[in-house]
């Protein structure tokens, strides 16, 4: 049994985001040890992905807080709203900005990340900021009061969220994107073109193959315009920096904990210091599995990190295995899901089935190995598929033919929404006619009946 199973032991978690809270909850279910969560950002946990809806007026901040105050007391989880200034791994103590000191038996770093700036002239002017933390949201409320025009630098997922937030208040938005199409370094050509056109159709100006050179100041020390590398000057009163994030590890400089971009860990989230672990955005794997990134800065991987580490802390040493890649997002009103490996540019041995509707608002792509027909990845735009089934296909090594046999069961859209799997199936039979049954449509209805998606009368 782990030493954390003893009541007198103290687990301290720096960070009360999804990773820190998930870890605390899993440990608490099986251990009576003392658990403390420290956060400088907020006094209590909240889902970071919901901040945009607070700004847009869809919800209040109290509406996105998932746990009432009594929950933490009932679960005996201590919350400390303070900033950790120093970690002493020899004495196992933390020095807090308030002057207090806290000792630990086991320390977990779940400190998240913050917006990355790249030393642009004028980046410290008033009206220039990122969007990661609650403080960023509060600053954005101040910085966008009464303004007319904004520039968003960067074409990632935070960038389009910020653009949507600004448009909701009738603020004109220009986005600087250094690629030829929006998110072209991640999306294949057709999806990148679809999203680029979709963003423009919502009145957002996309300046492609453009980068920030300088932010220009007015007489009051606030942003008045930006200058691009090509020499364009764009008037604005707000500059959103969405060019990526960096782990919050600066406070560990003299701690003896090895860091690079993030806190260096092995597959058990162990650092070089005994009884010190790191998970989520701030963790950097020393030796990631082939094809896997050194850092995983996603909501769903944060939960997986926490669950794996909780098992280790509770006495069952568990190496982290992420399984098939997954991510989801929203480009204005087009939902996006991706599973497995969908490259922006295909290699010679990779092929795909791709379908897109005439309105260019929905798309399905199945990527497979040209030689073995093994399913490699799935992209979905404007269509929702069942996570469990997509994950099962990839984890179990389904071939394209096996996927097609179960395709009727995967759609997760509401009952009366139009479905598009038949179009993809027709493409498959056209490409591989030897796989086609004598009558496609009858087989399609039979498959849907097999998975309980149609009544007997509906197939007549």
Key descriptive features of the protein:
460 residues, alpha/beta, five-stranded parallel β-sheet, 12 helices, globular, disordered C terminus
Structure description:
Helices cover 25% and strands 25% of the residues. It is an alpha/beta fold and 460 residues long.
- Strand order, sheet with most strands: 3-2-1-7-19
Strand count: 25
Task: Provide mean pLDDT, rounded.
Answer: 92
Strand count, sense and closure of the main sheet? 5 strands, parallel
Radius of gyration: 25 Å
Structure in a nutshell:
The protein is an alpha/beta fold and 460 residues long. Helices cover 25% and strands 25% of the residues.
Topology:
Elements: E1 10-14, H1 18-30, E2 34-39, H2 51-55, H3 61-64, H4 69-74, E3 77-81, E4 84-88, E5 93-96, E6 101-103, E7 106-109, E8 113-115, E9 128-129, H5 134-143, E10 149-153, H6 157-167, E11 172-177, H7 189-201, E12 205-208, E13 212-217, E14 223-228, E15 233-235, E16 238-241, E17 245-247, E18 263-265, E19 276-278, E20 283-285, H8 299-313, E21 326-331, E22 334-340, E23 350-356, E24 363-369, E25 375-381, H9 387-395, H10 400-406, H11 421-431, H12 440-450
Helix pairs in contact: 1-8
